[in-house]
Write a structure and sequence with these properties.
The protein is of the alpha+beta class. Helices cover about 50% and strands about 15% of the residues. It contains 14 helices and four strands.
C-alpha cells in the first residue's frame, strides 16, 4: 500500500485496530522495526529477513541481547488419537524450531487434527491460526478459566487441545492433569531449544536493554524495581503495546465472552490494520543514529 493511501486511511486503520490485541505486531515485527515505527522487538533468528539484516549490518538496528532456553509443549488428547498426536507433536516440534513450512501431507495432518480451515487464504495461514488458538488457551489458563474446548476434550467431543507450554512457572489446568492421571486423557510432550534475540532501533538501545533485563531477568537490578502487573505493563510499553493491548491480558475490559469471541475472530484483520496505522507514521528512511 502506498504511503499516501495509508495517511488518508489512517483514521479508519486506527478505529479498526484500537481494541486490544494479544500479540499486536505478529507477524509484522521485522517490517515495523525496519520502518522505524516499532522501537524494540523480541524475535527469533528465523524471523530476520534480508531487509532487516541489511539494517543490522548498517547499524540502524542493533541486537542488544539474546537468550537460549528450552520450551516444553504439551498436547492433551483423547487416548484414541494417541498415534496421530505423536505425529502432530513431531511435525510441530520441527516447525516451531526451524519455522520451515512442513510438506503438504504434514500440514494436512495438523489441519485435520485441529479442524483448521482447509480452503482459501485461511488454509494458507494454518500456523498463524493455530498460534492464535494457542495464545487464547494460554490466556485462559493464566486467568484460571475453563474454556469450551477444555470441556469438549474432557467429554471426548473433540480429539485434542492446542499445544500449551508447561514449563516451570507456567499455568496448568489441574482438571486436565488429573484427567491424564486417571487415564481419561493422554498427554504428548515435545521440547524445543529456542534462541530469542532482542533488537532495537539504534536510537532506542536503552529501551532495548531495559526490555532484555526485565523480560529475561538479566541485569534487572539496574532498573527501578517493579512487581506484578506493573512489571508486565512496563514490558508491554517497551514493546510498543497500547493500553488496550495490555487490557487484553489484564483487567475486566475484554472479559465478556461475546466480546472476546468477536475480537478473536477478527484478530488477523485488526493486526493488519494496526500495521497499516503504524506505517502511516513511518519515516522516509531508517537511519543509524
Amino acid at each position: 500500500m502506498k504511503q499516501a493511501a495509508r495517511k488518508y486511511l489512517k483514521p479508519i486503520f486506527k478505529a479498526i485496530s484500537k481494541h486490544g490485541l494479544g500479540n499486536p505486531h505478529t507477524p509484522y515485527e521485522a517490517e515495523l522495526l525496519c520502518a522505524g515505527v516499532k522501537p524494540v522487538a523480541i524475535m527469533s533468528p528465523n524471523d530476520i529477513d534480508a531487509k532487516m539484516q541489511a539494517h543490522i549490518d548498517s547499524g540502524a538496528i542493533v541486537k542488544v541481547g539474546e537468550k537460549s532456553f528450552e520450551k516444553t509443549y504439551r498436547i492433551y488428547h483423547t487416548p484414541k488419537v494417541k498415534d496421530s498426536a505423536a505425529q502432530v507433536s513431531g511435525i510441530l516440534k520441527s516447525f516451531f524450531k526451524t519455522r520451515v513450512q512442513p510438506d503438504a501431507n504434514d500440514v494436512s495432518l495438523v489441519v485435520d487434527f485441529y479442524n483448521l480451515p482447509k480452503d482459501g487464504k485461511k488454509a494458507e495461514d494454518w500456523a498463524q491460526i493455530l498460534h492464535s488458538k494457542m495464545s487464547a488457551f494460554q490466556i485462559a489458563l493464566y486467568e484460571t478459566k475453563t474454556t469450551p474446548n477444555m470441556i469438549a476434550v474432557l467429554k471426548g467431543s473433540i480429539p485434542a487441545l492446542e499445544p500449551i507450554r508447561v514449563d516451570e512457572g507456567m499455568p496448568i489446568s489441574d482438571e486436565l492433569e488429573q484427567s491424564v492421571e486417571r487415564g481419561d486423557l493422554n498427554a504428548s510432550d515435545f521440547q524445543i531449544e529456542e534462541l530469542v534475540q532482542v533488537y532495537a532501533q539504534s536510537n532506542k538501545v536503552a529501551e532495548g536493554k531495559e526490555l532484555y533485563a526485565r523480560y529475561y531477568g538479566v541485569g534487572k537490578e539496574n532498573y527501578p524495581s517493579l512487581h506484578g502487573l506493573n512489571s508486565h505493563k512496563r514490558i508491554a510499553q517497551l514493546l510498543g503495546f497500547t493500553d488496550n493491548d495490555f487490557a487484553w491480558f489484564a483487567g475486566a475490559k475484554y472479559q465478556n465472552p461475546l466480546i472476546k469471541s468477536v475480537l478473536l475472530h477478527t484478530e488477523d484483520i485488526r493486526k493488519w490494520a494496526r500495521k497499516q496505522y503504524l506505517l502511516s507514521d513511518a519515516p522516509n528512511e531508517l537511519r543509524n543514529e
